[in-house]
Amino acid sequence: MADEKPIKLSPNSLNLFLECPHCFWLDKKQGIKRPQPFPYALNSAVDALLKEEFDTYRTKNLPHPLLKDNNIKAHLFSNQKLLNQWRNNLAGIRYFDEELQATLFGAVDDVLEFSDGKIAPLDYKSTGSTAANVYDRFQLQLDTYTFLMEKNGYQTARKGYLAFYIVDKSRGFIDRLPFRKEIMEIETNPSDVYEIFKDGVECLRKETPPKHSQDCKFKKWMDGAIKYN
């Protein structure tokens, strides 16, 4: 085990494991990744601008309008230095499990803090869809962040927040891209995160990959390609 590559998993990794253990094994064990979609450069730009905006309110110790307008009784996490670390994709908020000899980590967008000292993850989501859709992977993401915060000694509100910035197509372009803003409160439950993490690690310690999930679209694509080759 000493010569094995260190195992480091993120919420996206756990989601891939749940979608298809075979694709997960190929990705993490062999570096063979699923075909990647086009990069979402616009989403990344919006994400960077939102971090800048939220940080401005944090520096001035002012309530962000999105929280105020939605009557969310919390303020922005005040420790900017720690938040910068938790945001960093190469660092993030981390938990190393001695028994598994593996690391679980995640890069949060932001954190809310309540009057009782409890904290909660806040994730920005920009979309061109007409509605704010909460997918299973978003739930797993917030559950994992809650798990990591608690493993790092913080009390959590067992809640997570999704700040949706939805392109408002009804208002035209006019050299600006208008957004409609919504924020959703999601109950988080970190109780299953460790088992998913453990199962993923055990999967990667096997010499051969498990079978594809029955509904894995990449397996169906490969089967079709082989059939007509």
Strand order of the largest sheet: 2-5-6-7-8
Per DSSP, what share of the residues sits in E-state strands of 2 or more residues?
15-25%
Low-pLDDT runs: none
Helix content bin: 25-40%
Describe the sheet with the most strands.
5 strands, mixed
Principal-axis shape:
globular
Structural class call reads alpha/beta
Q: How many structural units, i.e. domains?
A: 1
Q: What would you note in describing this structure?
A:
The chain is α/β, with parallel strands linked by helices and 229 residues long. The chain has one domain (40-202). The chain is 39% helix and 20% strand. The chain has 8 helices and 8 strands; from the N terminus they run βααααβαββββαββαα. The strands form 2 sheets. Strands 2-5-6-7-8 form a 5-stranded mixed beta sheet. Strands 1-4-3 form a 3-stranded mixed beta sheet. Strand 6 (119-127), helix 6 and strand 7 (159-167) form a beta-alpha-beta unit. Helix 1 packs across helix 2. The termini are far apart.
